[in-house]
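Annex B. Sample input.
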Amino acid sequence: TRGLSATLSNPTGFWYNFIFGSMVVAFTYFYTAVTVNPTMMAEDMKKNGGFIPGIKPGKKTAEYLDSIMSRITLPGSIFLAMIAIMPAFASMLGVDSQFAQFYGGTSLLILVGVVLDTLQQIESHLLMRHYDGLMKTGRMKGRSGV
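Annex B, continued. Sample output.
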């Protein structure tokens, strides 16, 4: 039992990272199942007049959304697992373990989230400024001839 305990508690060991990555994949599927409700999405689309071309509104749309959700969750969960175990690989490559943990998976996810949110806010401000110019002059500001 001492050998098994040492094997499973070594953050740079294969089995530790395999189990950790598998848990990330499993919890990603669980989180997606809990937070995303394809039936409610299909109902909302139907109420608002939206539809998916080639798919009947209602139950067929919910089934289609569920199948799509299942297909895109796997690559996303594998990507999250890779990000989660990235500090262990960095430590194995000789990077200081404290540095690898500090700039590890969670920090990277937060950093990417903040950057994407900032870019979205910048885009909305630019779009708002574009519409302000349209409202003031009655013409759109932009390149001529386009």
